[in-house]
Amino acid sequence: SDSSHAHHSPAHLHQEIQALRRKAQRLQDMLSSASQGAFAWIDGMLIEALQRGHWLLIDNVNFCSPSVLDRLNGLLEPKGVLIVGERG
């Protein structure tokens, strides 16, 4: 089989569909609670890339605020970690 089509395997597509369903459910839950003024955390590209083991290119990262760079620098250390305190 052609390795360029490996990312289109049924198992991979099933995982992607499940991830989209979870996101849709979170958004639906967020919208239903929006009238109550509730806060909902939704993971962004960085968190998702970390969870999935994907690369993430951050263009113009040198223009980030120092506090953001401090958080990102922790990831560049050996066995680096990212602490997301805002998540609750």
- On the 0-100 scale, what is the average pLDDT? 81
Distance between the termini: 45 Å
User: Regions with pLDDT < 50 over 5+ consecutive residues?
Assistant: none
Rg over alpha carbons: 17 Å
Helix-strand pattern? HHH
Number of strands: 0
Globular, elongated, flat, extended or rod-shaped: what is the shape? flat
Biggest beta sheet attributes = none
Q: How many separate helices?
A: 3
Briefly note the structural class of the backbone.
mainly alpha
Q: What percentage of residues falls in helices of 4 or more residues?
A: 40-55%
Which strand-content bin applies to the residues? Answer: under 5%
Can you describe this structure?
This protein is mainly α and 88 residues long. 50% of the residues lie in helices and 0% in strands. It contains three helices and no strands. The longest helix is centred in the first third of the chain and has 25 residues. It is flat. The protein starts with 9 loop residues before the first helix and ends in a 12-residue tail after the last helix. The model has no long low-confidence stretch (mean pLDDT 81).
Please tag this protein with its features.
flat; mainly alpha; 0% strand; 88 residues; 3 helices
Write the layout of secondary structure elements.
Elements: H1 10-34, H2 45-52, H3 66-76
In short:
This protein has helices at 10-34, 45-52, 66-76. By secondary structure, it is mostly helical.
